[in-house]
Amino acid sequence: MPLYDCMLLLKPQVERAAIVELLSRLGRRVYSLNGVVTDIKSFGKVYLGYGIRKLDGRYYQGQMMQMTMMVTPKFHKELEYLNKDDKLLRWLLVKYRDTSYGLEFVNESDSRGSFYNKYANSDLFEDEEEDDDDEQEYEVEEFADGETKQENKNVPEENNQNL
User: What is the CA radius of gyration of the chain?
Assistant: First the structure.
């Protein structure tokens, strides 16, 4: 199933409870068609570049919401009921292009070939290099104002002054 973003622009005076009810109704519609809602974002109040005229006036700001979902390609026909909702100024459904998810991603030969073969036989917890920093001794000096200074004993004195 492809990934879609549903952008919703609501009237600025719509209460939070009404927004939650609208999003839950949209989410139930997605789940009823065997889809999955992956993310919901709120952008708060946004100022519009031009006024949107509705029957009850002209709006120059609105509340922006984004719902990301994985649904079938015929889902856009299911959203036509949003046109009759008086809380919405505009809505837009955007499809992600050239992306693969789920079984499509696993079955691709390139996705598993390059990454999986590179790290399949390596031990992720094996350190190839030793940290030399652990073997060095440091000396800590305390000053009268409570600050401390850490110096490396193995480095000549002129290098410590440059720190």
Answer: 29
Report the C-alpha gap between 104 and 110 in whole angstroms.
Answer: 11
Question: Which secondary-structure segment (H or E) carries 66?
Answer: strand 57-70
pLDDT digits (tens, 9 = 90+) for 36-95: 999 999 999 999 999 999 999 999 999 999 999 999 888 888 888 888 889 999 999 999
> Distances in Å between the alpha carbon of 131 and those of 19, 107, 127, 128, 147?
54, 40, 9, 10, 27
Domains of the chain (ranges, CATH numbers)? 3-102 (3.30.70.60), 137-162 (no CATH)
- DSSP string across 6-51: EEEEE-TT--HHHHHHHHHHHHHHHHHTT-EEEEEEEEEEEEEEEE
Cα gap 101→83, rounded to integer Å: 30
